[in-house]
Amino acid sequence: MYSNRSMRLNPKLVAGKGSTVFGRCAKVFFKQMAFVPDLRTVRDARKLLDQYLPISRTIPAGSLSRPGMAVHLKLETELPTGSFKPRGALYALATNLARRRVEEVTASSTGNHGAAVAFAAKTLGVRATIFLPSNPNPVKRRKISDLGARIVEGDSDLAGAFQEASAYSARPGVYFLNDATDRDVPVGTATIGLEIVQQIPSVSTVYVPIGDSALIRGIASVVKQLVPGVRVIGVQAERAPSYYLSWKEGRAVPTETCDTCADGLATRTPDAENVRRIRELVDDVVLVSEDQMLKAISHLYHEEGVLAEPAGAAATAAFLLHDRSLDNRGTVETRLAASCVVLLVTGANIPEEVRQRAGIPKATSD
Protein backbone atom coordinates (compact mmCIF):
# COMPACT_ATOMS: atom_id res chain seq x y z
CA MET A 1 0.00 0.00 0.00
CA TYR A 2 2.79 2.43 0.82
CA SER A 3 4.95 2.02 -2.25
CA ASN A 4 6.38 5.14 -3.85
CA ARG A 5 4.02 5.58 -6.78
CA SER A 6 5.11 8.69 -8.68
CA MET A 7 3.65 9.28 -12.08
CA ARG A 8 2.13 11.73 -14.50
CA LEU A 9 -1.28 12.10 -12.97
CA ASN A 10 -4.60 11.19 -14.50
CA PRO A 11 -6.83 14.30 -14.41
CA LYS A 12 -9.94 12.08 -14.16
CA LEU A 13 -8.54 10.39 -11.06
CA VAL A 14 -7.68 13.71 -9.45
CA ALA A 15 -10.92 15.44 -10.37
CA GLY A 16 -13.23 12.78 -9.01
CA LYS A 17 -16.86 12.28 -9.93
CA GLY A 18 -18.69 15.32 -11.19
CA SER A 19 -15.69 17.67 -11.09
CA THR A 20 -15.92 18.69 -14.74
CA VAL A 21 -14.56 22.21 -14.23
CA PHE A 22 -11.62 20.92 -12.21
CA GLY A 23 -11.07 18.19 -14.79
CA ARG A 24 -10.66 20.78 -17.56
CA CYS A 25 -8.26 22.82 -15.42
CA ALA A 26 -6.35 19.68 -14.45
CA LYS A 27 -5.82 18.62 -18.06
CA VAL A 28 -4.11 21.92 -18.83
CA PHE A 29 -2.06 21.76 -15.65
CA PHE A 30 -0.89 18.16 -15.93
CA LYS A 31 0.28 18.58 -19.52
CA GLN A 32 2.89 20.95 -18.16
CA MET A 33 3.63 19.19 -14.90
CA ALA A 34 6.69 17.20 -13.91
CA PHE A 35 6.98 13.85 -12.19
CA VAL A 36 5.15 14.36 -8.83
CA PRO A 37 3.51 12.22 -6.11
CA ASP A 38 0.00 11.14 -7.06
CA LEU A 39 -2.86 11.84 -4.69
CA ARG A 40 -3.54 8.20 -3.84
CA THR A 41 0.04 7.78 -2.67
CA VAL A 42 -0.16 10.95 -0.58
CA ARG A 43 -3.43 9.83 0.99
CA ASP A 44 -1.88 6.44 1.80
CA ALA A 45 1.07 8.28 3.33
CA ARG A 46 -1.29 10.23 5.58
CA LYS A 47 -2.83 6.95 6.77
CA LEU A 48 0.63 5.62 7.59
CA LEU A 49 1.61 8.82 9.41
CA ASP A 50 -1.64 8.76 11.40
CA GLN A 51 -0.03 5.96 13.45
CA TYR A 52 2.76 8.27 14.62
CA LEU A 53 1.93 11.95 14.04
CA PRO A 54 -1.02 14.22 14.84
CA ILE A 55 -2.61 16.44 12.21
CA SER A 56 -1.20 19.90 12.84
CA ARG A 57 -3.63 22.75 13.36
CA THR A 58 -4.26 25.59 10.94
CA ILE A 59 -5.36 28.59 13.00
CA PRO A 60 -6.63 32.08 12.12
CA ALA A 61 -4.04 34.85 12.51
CA GLY A 62 -6.07 37.82 13.68
CA SER A 63 -3.14 40.22 13.75
CA LEU A 64 -2.36 39.52 10.08
CA SER A 65 -5.90 39.35 8.71
CA ARG A 66 -7.97 42.28 7.51
CA PRO A 67 -11.36 42.81 5.84
CA GLY A 68 -11.36 40.75 2.65
CA MET A 69 -8.16 38.88 3.53
CA ALA A 70 -8.18 35.96 5.97
CA VAL A 71 -4.73 34.79 7.04
CA HIS A 72 -4.06 31.43 8.71
CA LEU A 73 -1.00 29.80 10.27
CA LYS A 74 -0.24 26.11 9.63
CA LEU A 75 1.48 25.06 12.86
CA GLU A 76 4.00 22.36 11.94
CA THR A 77 5.71 23.27 15.19
CA GLU A 78 3.17 21.01 16.94
CA LEU A 79 4.74 17.84 15.54
CA PRO A 80 7.34 15.76 17.41
CA THR A 81 10.81 17.38 17.25
CA GLY A 82 9.16 20.80 16.74
CA SER A 83 9.17 20.87 12.94
CA PHE A 84 7.49 19.47 9.83
CA LYS A 85 10.41 17.17 9.09
CA PRO A 86 9.14 13.93 10.72
CA ARG A 87 6.51 13.64 7.96
CA GLY A 88 9.09 12.97 5.26
CA ALA A 89 11.53 11.08 7.46
CA LEU A 90 8.96 8.65 8.86
CA TYR A 91 7.34 7.98 5.50
CA ALA A 92 10.67 7.50 3.71
CA LEU A 93 12.16 5.21 6.35
CA ALA A 94 8.99 3.11 6.71
CA THR A 95 8.74 2.75 2.93
CA ASN A 96 12.37 1.70 2.58
CA LEU A 97 12.12 -0.78 5.45
CA ALA A 98 9.33 -2.45 3.49
CA ARG A 99 11.48 -2.56 0.34
CA ARG A 100 14.84 -3.79 1.61
CA ARG A 101 17.09 -4.53 4.54
CA VAL A 102 17.96 -1.36 6.46
CA GLU A 103 20.18 -1.74 9.52
CA GLU A 104 21.09 1.91 9.90
CA VAL A 105 19.78 5.21 8.57
CA THR A 106 21.96 8.27 8.02
CA ALA A 107 21.35 11.92 7.20
CA SER A 108 23.21 15.17 6.73
CA SER A 109 21.40 18.10 8.27
CA THR A 110 21.57 21.53 9.82
CA GLY A 111 19.36 20.10 12.56
CA ASN A 112 15.62 19.65 11.96
CA HIS A 113 15.95 16.89 9.38
CA GLY A 114 18.53 15.18 11.55
CA ALA A 115 16.18 15.25 14.53
CA ALA A 116 13.36 13.93 12.35
CA VAL A 117 15.48 11.04 11.08
CA ALA A 118 16.56 10.29 14.66
CA PHE A 119 12.88 10.31 15.70
CA ALA A 120 11.88 8.06 12.80
CA ALA A 121 14.74 5.65 13.54
CA LYS A 122 13.83 5.42 17.22
CA THR A 123 10.15 4.98 16.37
CA LEU A 124 10.80 2.23 13.81
CA GLY A 125 13.68 0.50 15.65
CA VAL A 126 16.68 1.38 13.46
CA ARG A 127 20.10 2.82 14.35
CA ALA A 128 20.72 6.40 13.20
CA THR A 129 23.87 8.41 12.49
CA ILE A 130 23.46 12.13 11.78
CA PHE A 131 26.16 14.24 10.12
CA LEU A 132 26.05 17.90 11.13
CA PRO A 133 27.96 20.94 9.88
CA SER A 134 30.28 22.83 12.21
CA ASN A 135 28.64 24.96 14.92
CA PRO A 136 25.14 23.50 14.56
CA ASN A 137 22.06 24.96 16.21
CA PRO A 138 22.49 23.78 19.83
CA VAL A 139 18.76 23.25 20.39
CA LYS A 140 18.54 20.95 17.37
CA ARG A 141 21.79 19.14 18.21
CA ARG A 142 20.47 18.38 21.69
CA LYS A 143 17.22 16.99 20.29
CA ILE A 144 19.14 14.65 17.98
CA SER A 145 21.25 13.45 20.88
CA ASP A 146 18.24 13.00 23.17
CA LEU A 147 16.61 10.80 20.52
CA GLY A 148 19.55 8.40 20.71
CA ALA A 149 21.23 9.04 17.35
CA ARG A 150 24.99 9.05 16.92
CA ILE A 151 26.24 12.50 15.90
CA VAL A 152 29.19 13.22 13.62
CA GLU A 153 29.93 16.94 13.66
CA GLY A 154 32.07 18.13 10.75
CA ASP A 155 34.36 21.10 10.31
CA SER A 156 32.59 22.74 7.34
CA ASP A 157 29.07 23.57 6.14
CA LEU A 158 26.11 21.39 5.14
CA ALA A 159 27.70 20.51 1.80
CA GLY A 160 30.64 19.03 3.69
CA ALA A 161 28.32 17.10 6.01
CA PHE A 162 26.56 15.73 2.93
CA GLN A 163 29.84 14.43 1.49
CA GLU A 164 30.71 12.69 4.75
CA ALA A 165 27.26 11.13 5.07
CA SER A 166 27.29 9.98 1.45
CA ALA A 167 30.66 8.27 1.84
CA TYR A 168 29.64 6.59 5.11
CA SER A 169 26.38 5.36 3.58
CA ALA A 170 28.15 3.26 0.95
CA ARG A 171 28.29 0.50 3.60
CA PRO A 172 25.90 -2.45 3.25
CA GLY A 173 22.59 -2.06 5.05
CA VAL A 174 22.93 1.71 5.43
CA TYR A 175 20.17 3.94 4.04
CA PHE A 176 21.14 7.56 3.33
CA LEU A 177 17.92 9.51 3.87
CA ASN A 178 18.87 12.68 2.02
CA ASP A 179 15.83 14.94 2.04
CA ALA A 180 17.04 17.00 -0.91
CA THR A 181 16.97 14.06 -3.35
CA ASP A 182 15.07 11.19 -1.72
CA ARG A 183 11.96 10.51 -3.80
CA ASP A 184 9.87 9.45 -0.81
CA VAL A 185 10.39 12.55 1.35
CA PRO A 186 8.14 14.88 -0.70
CA VAL A 187 5.33 12.31 -0.39
CA GLY A 188 5.48 12.80 3.38
CA THR A 189 5.62 16.60 3.15
CA ALA A 190 2.77 16.54 0.62
CA THR A 191 0.44 15.45 3.45
CA ILE A 192 0.65 19.06 4.66
CA GLY A 193 -1.03 20.10 1.41
CA LEU A 194 -3.83 17.60 2.00
CA GLU A 195 -4.41 18.98 5.49
CA ILE A 196 -4.39 22.61 4.31
CA VAL A 197 -7.09 21.94 1.72
CA GLN A 198 -9.17 19.94 4.21
CA GLN A 199 -8.85 22.62 6.90
CA ILE A 200 -9.09 25.72 4.64
CA PRO A 201 -10.94 24.68 1.44
CA SER A 202 -11.02 28.28 0.16
CA VAL A 203 -7.22 28.72 0.32
CA SER A 204 -5.97 31.01 -2.44
CA THR A 205 -2.30 31.53 -1.55
CA VAL A 206 0.22 29.44 0.39
CA TYR A 207 3.61 30.77 1.52
CA VAL A 208 6.23 28.06 1.98
CA PRO A 209 9.91 28.40 3.03
CA ILE A 210 12.49 26.74 0.77
CA GLY A 211 15.52 24.97 2.20
CA ASP A 212 16.30 21.81 0.23
CA SER A 213 12.89 22.22 -1.55
CA ALA A 214 11.28 18.89 -0.51
CA LEU A 215 8.67 20.80 1.52
CA ILE A 216 7.50 23.11 -1.23
CA ARG A 217 7.60 20.39 -3.91
CA GLY A 218 5.38 18.16 -1.79
CA ILE A 219 2.89 20.83 -0.75
CA ALA A 220 2.63 22.44 -4.19
CA SER A 221 2.10 19.11 -5.93
CA VAL A 222 -1.03 18.49 -3.83
CA VAL A 223 -2.63 21.92 -3.48
CA LYS A 224 -2.21 22.59 -7.22
CA GLN A 225 -4.11 19.39 -7.95
CA LEU A 226 -6.91 20.03 -5.48
CA VAL A 227 -7.44 23.80 -5.73
CA PRO A 228 -7.37 25.24 -9.28
CA GLY A 229 -5.79 28.68 -9.35
CA VAL A 230 -4.11 28.50 -5.94
CA ARG A 231 -0.79 30.36 -5.77
CA VAL A 232 2.25 28.87 -4.07
CA ILE A 233 4.97 31.34 -3.08
CA GLY A 234 8.39 30.12 -2.02
CA VAL A 235 10.53 32.00 0.48
CA GLN A 236 14.31 32.04 0.84
CA ALA A 237 16.74 34.01 2.96
CA GLU A 238 18.62 36.85 1.25
CA ARG A 239 21.85 35.37 2.61
CA ALA A 240 21.02 31.86 1.32
CA PRO A 241 19.42 32.53 -2.09
CA SER A 242 20.47 29.48 -4.13
CA TYR A 243 16.97 28.27 -5.03
CA TYR A 244 15.75 31.83 -5.58
CA LEU A 245 18.54 32.43 -8.09
CA SER A 246 17.96 29.01 -9.65
CA TRP A 247 14.21 29.58 -9.96
CA LYS A 248 14.83 32.92 -11.67
CA GLU A 249 17.49 31.62 -14.08
CA GLY A 250 16.02 28.21 -14.85
CA ARG A 251 19.13 26.26 -13.86
CA ALA A 252 20.88 25.21 -10.66
CA VAL A 253 22.85 28.20 -9.36
CA PRO A 254 25.06 27.37 -6.36
CA THR A 255 26.31 30.06 -4.01
CA GLU A 256 29.68 30.32 -2.32
CA THR A 257 28.19 30.80 1.15
CA CYS A 258 24.85 30.66 2.96
CA ASP A 259 25.48 32.65 6.13
CA THR A 260 22.02 33.13 7.60
CA CYS A 261 20.41 32.89 11.02
CA ALA A 262 17.79 30.68 9.32
CA ASP A 263 19.81 27.45 9.41
CA GLY A 264 16.78 25.59 8.07
CA LEU A 265 17.16 27.56 4.81
CA ALA A 266 20.95 27.28 4.60
CA THR A 267 21.33 25.49 1.26
CA ARG A 268 23.97 26.62 -1.23
CA THR A 269 24.05 23.73 -3.74
CA PRO A 270 20.59 23.28 -5.31
CA ASP A 271 19.71 20.07 -7.12
CA ALA A 272 19.01 20.57 -10.84
CA GLU A 273 15.98 18.27 -10.90
CA ASN A 274 14.50 20.03 -7.87
CA VAL A 275 14.95 23.37 -9.64
CA ARG A 276 13.04 22.04 -12.64
CA ARG A 277 10.19 20.85 -10.45
CA ILE A 278 9.78 24.02 -8.42
CA ARG A 279 9.76 26.07 -11.63
CA GLU A 280 6.79 23.99 -12.79
CA LEU A 281 4.97 24.00 -9.43
CA VAL A 282 5.74 27.34 -7.78
CA ASP A 283 4.29 30.70 -8.83
CA ASP A 284 6.93 32.95 -7.29
CA VAL A 285 9.99 32.84 -5.05
CA VAL A 286 10.88 35.80 -2.85
CA LEU A 287 13.71 36.75 -0.53
CA VAL A 288 13.52 37.98 3.07
CA SER A 289 16.28 39.61 5.08
CA GLU A 290 17.64 38.57 8.45
CA ASP A 291 15.93 41.55 10.05
CA GLN A 292 12.59 40.71 8.43
CA MET A 293 12.72 37.16 9.78
CA LEU A 294 13.59 38.40 13.26
CA LYS A 295 10.68 40.84 13.16
CA ALA A 296 8.38 38.04 12.00
CA ILE A 297 9.54 35.87 14.95
CA SER A 298 8.68 38.74 17.28
CA HIS A 299 5.30 39.33 15.62
CA LEU A 300 4.30 35.67 15.78
CA TYR A 301 5.33 35.38 19.42
CA HIS A 302 3.84 38.62 20.75
CA GLU A 303 0.75 38.92 18.53
CA GLU A 304 -0.21 35.27 17.90
CA GLY A 305 1.42 33.38 20.77
CA VAL A 306 3.38 31.20 18.33
CA LEU A 307 7.06 30.38 18.74
CA ALA A 308 9.03 30.07 15.50
CA GLU A 309 12.67 29.78 14.51
CA PRO A 310 13.91 32.01 11.64
CA ALA A 311 13.12 29.48 8.88
CA GLY A 312 9.77 28.83 10.56
CA ALA A 313 8.95 32.55 10.46
CA ALA A 314 10.18 33.12 6.89
CA ALA A 315 6.72 32.68 5.32
CA THR A 316 5.27 35.24 7.73
CA ALA A 317 8.14 37.61 6.95
CA ALA A 318 7.40 37.32 3.23
CA PHE A 319 3.69 37.90 3.77
CA LEU A 320 4.37 41.01 5.85
CA LEU A 321 6.63 42.27 3.07
CA HIS A 322 3.98 41.58 0.40
CA ASP A 323 1.22 43.04 2.56
CA ARG A 324 3.09 46.33 2.85
CA SER A 325 3.46 46.36 -0.93
CA LEU A 326 -0.30 45.87 -1.29
CA ASP A 327 -0.90 48.80 1.04
CA ASN A 328 1.19 50.99 -1.24
CA ARG A 329 0.25 49.83 -4.73
CA GLY A 330 -1.98 46.75 -4.63
CA THR A 331 -4.95 46.51 -6.98
CA VAL A 332 -8.39 45.14 -6.15
CA GLU A 333 -7.58 42.07 -8.26
CA THR A 334 -4.36 41.44 -6.35
CA ARG A 335 -6.17 41.67 -3.02
CA LEU A 336 -8.88 39.28 -4.16
CA ALA A 337 -6.22 36.81 -5.32
CA ALA A 338 -4.80 36.83 -1.80
CA SER A 339 -8.18 36.63 -0.04
CA CYS A 340 -7.40 33.43 1.89
CA VAL A 341 -3.76 32.99 2.82
CA VAL A 342 -1.99 30.15 4.62
CA LEU A 343 1.48 30.75 6.07
CA LEU A 344 3.59 27.72 6.95
CA VAL A 345 5.20 27.88 10.40
CA THR A 346 7.67 25.09 9.90
CA GLY A 347 9.84 24.94 13.00
CA ALA A 348 10.24 26.22 16.56
CA ASN A 349 13.79 25.14 17.43
CA ILE A 350 15.18 28.57 18.15
CA PRO A 351 18.53 29.08 19.90
CA GLU A 352 18.88 31.54 22.75
CA GLU A 353 21.01 33.97 20.74
CA VAL A 354 18.27 34.32 18.11
CA ARG A 355 15.62 34.73 20.81
CA GLN A 356 17.56 37.68 22.16
CA ARG A 357 17.94 39.26 18.72
CA ALA A 358 14.20 38.85 18.08
CA GLY A 359 13.28 40.31 21.45
CA ILE A 360 11.40 37.30 22.83
CA PRO A 361 11.81 35.87 26.34
CA LYS A 362 14.41 33.35 27.33
CA ALA A 363 13.37 29.72 26.90
CA THR A 364 11.43 28.23 29.77
CA SER A 365 8.56 25.94 28.76
CA ASP A 366 7.40 27.37 25.39
How would you portray this structure in words?
The chain has 366 residues and is an alpha/beta fold. The protein has 2 domains: 203 residues, Rossmann fold; 91 residues, Rossmann fold. It contains 15 helices and 12 strands. Helix 5 links the parallel strand 5 and strand 6. The relative contact order is 0.14. The N terminus is likely disordered.
User: Helical residue percent?
Assistant: 40-55%
Main β sheet profile: 6 strands, mixed
The CATH class of the largest domain, by name, is: Alpha Beta
Order of helices and strands: EHHEHEEHEHEHEHEHEHEHHEHHHEH
Poorly predicted tracts of residues: 1-35, 329-336
Defining key terms:
six-stranded mixed beta sheet; 366 residues; alpha/beta; 2 domains; globular; Rossmann fold
What's this, in brief?
With 366 residues, this protein is an alpha/beta fold.
How do the helices and strands line up, and which of them pair or pack?
Blueprint: E1 6-7, H1 11-15, H2 20-31, E2 36-37, H3 39-49, E3 58-60, E4 70-75, H4 86-99, E5 104-108, H5 112-124, E6 127-132, H6 138-146, E7 150-153, H7 158-168, E8 174-176, H8 185-199, E9 205-209, H9 214-226, E10 231-237, H10 242-249, H11 272-281, E11 284-288, H12 290-304, H13 310-329, H14 332-337, E12 340-345, H15 352-358
Parallel strand pairs: 4-12, 5-6, 5-8, 6-7, 9-10, 9-12, 10-11
Antiparallel strand pairs: 1-2, 3-4
Helix pairs in contact: 3-8, 4-5, 4-8, 5-6, 8-9, 9-11, 12-13
